Amino acid sequence: MSLEKLINNCKQGNRRAQEELYRKYSGVLFGMCLKYSRNKTEAEDSLHDSFMTIFDKIDQFTNKGSFEGWMKRITVNTVLQKYRKEQHLNVVSENMGDEEVSIESEHVDNINLSTLLNHIQELPNKYRLTFNLYVLDGYSHKEISELLGTSTGTSKSNLARAKMILKEKIEKENISIA
């Protein structure tokens, strides 16, 4: 079944089409949820909530642009909305300025992907969300500040802190490996 037909069937509330759409895209969207979540259970909850929103708003998709991109945007917004509701995002009052923290590639090369993902998931919420939005998904600080309801300075500060924490964890990991 073509994607367009699948979408149209979902718009009509066809449960089999919804199940097929879920099977087709749940892996990609779960990966996104996992990036933004503290653990697998939280990511599963976010995936469920995302698909509920996707099926609820599928009539709003006008076949212009990427359907997968549209679903990814809903997924990111669903995860961020959950954090805003839980009031986990507190404004950082300290400002680290525009200081750039870099993680040496030799350290990253020596760490496996699942360990790196675990380190990212262990970041405090505001740092993890900012890091993922900026580094992994390419959002600008202005866009992040709008999504998270903070200032661009806070976004920059949160990113710098996230990088600093990750750098420390990765360097510690490399010392343990050596």
From TrEMBL:
Cited InterPro entries: RNA_pol_sigma-70-like, RNA_pol_sigma-70_dom, RNA_pol_sigma70_r2, RNA_pol_sigma70_r4_t2, RNA_pol_sigma_r2, RNA_pol_sigma_r3/r4-like, WH-like_DNA-bd_sf
Top-level taxonomic group: Bacteria
Gene3D superfamilies noted in UniProt: 1.10.1740.10, Winged helix-like DNA-binding domain superfamily/Winged helix DNA-binding domain (1.10.10.10)
RNA polymerase sigma-70 region domain span: 21-87
Pfam families: Sigma70_r2, Sigma70_r4_2
Family membership noted in the UniProt record: Belongs to the sigma-70 factor family. ECF subfamily.
Taxonomic lineage from the root: Bacteria, Pseudomonadati, Bacteroidota, Flavobacteriia, Flavobacteriales
Organism for this UniProt entry: Croceitalea marina
Segments traversing the membrane: none
Protein name as catalogued: RNA polymerase sigma factor
Keywords: Sigma factor, Transcription, Transcription regulation
Residue ranges of every copy of the RNA polymerase sigma factor 70 region 4 type domain listed in the record: 120-164
